[in-house]
Amino acid sequence: MPPSPEAILDYVLIDPDRLQRRIAELGQQISDDYRDKNLILVGILKGSLVFMADLMRHIVVPHTLDFMDVTSYGAGKRASTGDVRILMDLHLSIEGRHVLIVEDIIDSGHTMAQVLRLLEARRPASLRVCTLLDKVERREVKMDIDYIGFPIDNVFVFGYGLDIDEYYRNLPYIGVVKSGVTLSESDENYSQPSAG
Ligand code: PRP
What we know:
The protein is α/β, with parallel strands linked by helices. The chain has one domain (5-71, 85-177): 3-Layer(aba) Sandwich (Rossmann fold), CATH 3.40.50. It has four helices and nine strands; from the N terminus they run αβαβαβββαββββ. The chain has helices spanning 5-8, 16-33, 49-56, 110-120, and strands at residues 9-14, 39-45, 63-72, 84-88, 98-106, 126-134, 147-151, 157-158, 174-177. The longest helix is centred in the N-terminal third of the chain and has 18 residues, at 16-33. The radius of gyration is 16 Å and the shape is globular. 35% of the residues are buried. 1-O-pyrophosphono-5-O-phosphono-alpha-D-ribofuranose is lined by residues 44-47, 71-72, 75, 80, 103-112, 163.
């Protein structure tokens, strides 16, 4: 079993109140921007799940919801190569719809760049990006992000959808992992201060 969150937590970066206040603001802004538009929210699994669940409850315009699961080759080492494989595709057509992609974090940007390319080819009416966290210092692919919850420094974060070794997604805060924490010795991802 993994250690308790307290055992690996260095400090809380964004507490539940601050998260919820900002998500309410984003929901309001999105509701204003998509008034009278045929909106579909597209969550990128699995990290976006918790953010999506809270965000959508602050979006007061009618919308539908879909999910996509993608993985980057080499993502386990947090060295996205730009080669993104679809593990689970959307169930709904996005042609002619106003698409808002919902992510937990944009790091190198490779995942999002590929998702944008894939979805753009399906001829949506518009395509925008909403990310809870933006680790801009790590960016390798230039892109415009339309809605950003919190720009963050290059620290290894977990909680509120973001995992370590698939655990801790349920935490109500975004925490920073103590340096040197290694959960899975078989996966060097968890010893690097660059994931999550
Ligand atoms: C994370 C995150 C993004 C991606 C960002 O997903 O949710 O999809 O990495 O990294 P990038 O900007 O460097 O491409 P992850 O592969 O950890 O999967 P998960 O959402 O299932 O945790």
